[in-house]
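[Automated response] Your request has been received and processed.

Submitted sequence:
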Amino acid sequence: MMKFNTLVYHFRQSLNGFKRSGIMAMATISTVAASLMILGAFLLFHGNLNLLLHNLQGQLKVNFYLRDGASEREISEFIQGLKQETVVRDFEIISKADALDLLRKDLGEDSVLLDNLSRNPLPNTITVTLHPTEEIRTFREKYSANPMIESSSSGKDWVEQILNLIHLAKVSGTFIVVFLGLASLFIISNTIRLTVFARRHEIEIMRLVGATNWFIRSPFLMEGVLQGIAGALIATLFLAFGYGLLQDRLLLFFPELKLLSSQADLIQLYLKLFFLGIALGLLGSLLSLRKFLV
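Generated structure:
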């Protein structure tokens, strides 16, 4: 029962400190909320990028067109080289006859145009499917240099540019999130520091009557946690509403666009933000108290 009463006492003290902090507490909550909103937006962006990459996997292909005189040994050596490449997900050898059949299927009713061909003009082809990589051009140039390759094409050169943009977005997003996280810690620690300073006489009296440092620290730690929770809740509400609205608008104009929409994934993301808010509040409090209550 004493432990419960002590917990209630600490909680009330933290609420009082929360009220005393006033503008600083609001600044802390706003900073935490802004940091977590940007982090949440970055995580949503990252999740949708991963979904995009998954959908692009089947499009990351390079076609190598073989010369008519290519021998089986040359083809075998070429394939052995492909098998050793970590970026290669799969490959397929398409003969001239199979390529012509595929072309007939693609043309549909217009396939009658091919009936007048005196010979099959299509080359034997090795189609290579790649894992998401920024080295599509390098890979293509490396194997196009093989003497048995007449020419090559990827058909998706724009994918390389998309992957470069994705990498840039990930790096810049990480820097922004780290910067805002540090800003949150700085403001939280300063808010708690001001509260400790305002209550320094009360703290001295508590020390004189034998209160331990952890007994004195607990309300301040709870205050930081409450600020973190408040910021996390605000960030989550704004993100849930904003992402839902953005999703509806995008799907209205791009019905075939694949976006992260699983409720389980979204709830997991929002829970991460909630617990990160608690961690920011607790860590910020600990950083400030380390100087004043050791």
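Summary generated for your ticket: The CA atoms of residues 35 and 179 lie 9 Å apart. The chain has nine helices and four strands.
If you did not submit this request, please reply to this message.
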